UniProtKB/TrEMBL annotation:
Gene3D superfamilies recorded: N-(1-d-carboxylethyl)-l-norvaline Dehydrogenase, domain 2, NAD(P)-binding Rossmann-like Domain
Organism name: Mycobacterium kansasii
SUPFAM superfamilies in the record: 6-phosphogluconate dehydrogenase C-terminal domain-like, NAD(P)-binding Rossmann-fold domains
GO term, biological process aspect, one: D-gluconate metabolic process
GO molecular function, one term: NADP binding
Residues annotated as domain 6-phosphogluconate dehydrogenase C-terminal: 161-310
Region Disordered: start-end pairs: 1-22
Pfam families: 6PGD, NAD_binding_2
Entry protein name: 6-phosphogluconate dehydrogenase
Keywords attached to this entry: Gluconate utilization, Oxidoreductase
Top EC class for this record: oxidoreductase
Domain of life: Bacteria
Similarity section: Belongs to the 6-phosphogluconate dehydrogenase family.
Length: 315
């Protein structure tokens, strides 16, 4: 296996027991590989990926295969595939899920592109995927083990792999938001024990006796991991985080989005398909970064104008 690392110090990690070799350029990579070559690209989505694809189009030979394992927008895949196909080069867009745990768990791979190119590279995907042992077989799925059961799947033509990964990430946003919101409700279940403000600007808590619970959030997360309907790997990871830091003090609460949630929402709008949970989860990430600050100021200004409501100072 060969890997491109332009900086010499970054190439120092190659070699040794894993039988890898670092090279300094894509041209050197081409010269070190036998045709038909398979080149796996794993760089940030957007202009960086497009730049690498363009360079590969000028470097590789007809019949070679490029695997884009990043989080590229599926519409860009269609453009990239056309650019490469003009040179006789195949693109396999590959949605890769598994995060930093994939190295030990294996990666879930969602693949789009030419079926023949996929067949040629399938052994690579089978090696990187988690395998059928990663989950119990679905009842009724007997006989030969399917691709999907091994943790990789050829989803369709160019763009299909990253389209499926895009929706996967949109779902991920929704699942994460629901867990986070539920835990926050539990965390505030003791609100009835706190001093209540009594003024015209504060909605009263009518029945404080109903909210007298000091819930141990890390223990509840641990509990839900065992036998509950919402048990999941996301919950497992949440339990780890809460065990390490019950109050999560080291986090500011500013949640980034890398684009897939936005693209999923756009696809839902284009398809005319309602997706309120996924879209709201994305919007909540925007709000976490204070991008609603001016809107909230405008709300306070309107309340003052029509009702003389004074804005309460932040706690």
């Amino acid at each position: 296996m060969r890997g491109v690392r332009p900086q010499p110090r970054r190439r120092q990690g190659f070699g040794g027991e894993d039988n890898t070799t670092g090279v300094s350029s894509l041209r050197e990579l081409r010269d070190r590989l036998s045709a038909p070559r398979v080149v796996w690209v794993m760089v940030p989505a957007g202009n960086i990926t497009t730049g690498v694809i363009k360079e590969l189009a000028e470097t590789l030979d007809s019949g070679d295969i490029v695997i884009d394992g990043g989080n590229t927008y599926y519409r860009d895949d269609i453009t990239h595939a056309k650019l490469l196909s003009d040179k006789g080069i195949h693109l396999l867009d590959t949605g890769t899920s598994g995060g930093v745990w994939g190295l030990e768990r294996g990666y879930c791979l969602m693949i789009g592109g030419d079926a023949g190119a996929f067949a040629h590279a399938e052994a690579i995907f089978a090696t990187v995927a988690p395998g059928v042992e990663a989950a119990p077989r679905t009842p009724g799925r007997d006989g030969e083990v399917a691709q999907s059961e091994k943790g990789y799947f050829h989803c369709g033509p160019s763009g299909a792999g990253h389209f499926v990964k895009m929706v996967h990430n949109g779902i991920e946003y929704g699942m994460m938001a629901s867990l986070a919101e539920g835990l926050n409700i539990l965390r505030n279940a003791d609100i009835g024990t706190r001093v209540q403000q009594g003024d015209a600007e504060t909605a009263p808590l009518s029945n404080p006796e109903y909210y007298q619970y000091d819930i141990d959030i890390p223990e509840v997360a641990e509990l839900w991991r065992r036998g509950s309907v919402i048990g999941s790997w996301l919950l497992d990871l949440t339990a780890i985080a809460l065990h390490e830091s019950p109050e999560l003090q080291e986090f500011s609460g500013r949640v980034s989005d890398s684009g897939e949630g936005r693209w999923t929402s756009i696809a839902a709008i284009d398809e005319g398909v309602p997706a309120p949970v996924l879209t709201t989860a994305l919007q909540s990430r925007f709000a976490s970064r204070d991008l609603d600050d001016f809107a909230n100021k405008a709300l306070s200004a309107m309340r003052k104008q029509f009702g003389g409501h004074a804005e309460k100072p932040a706690n």
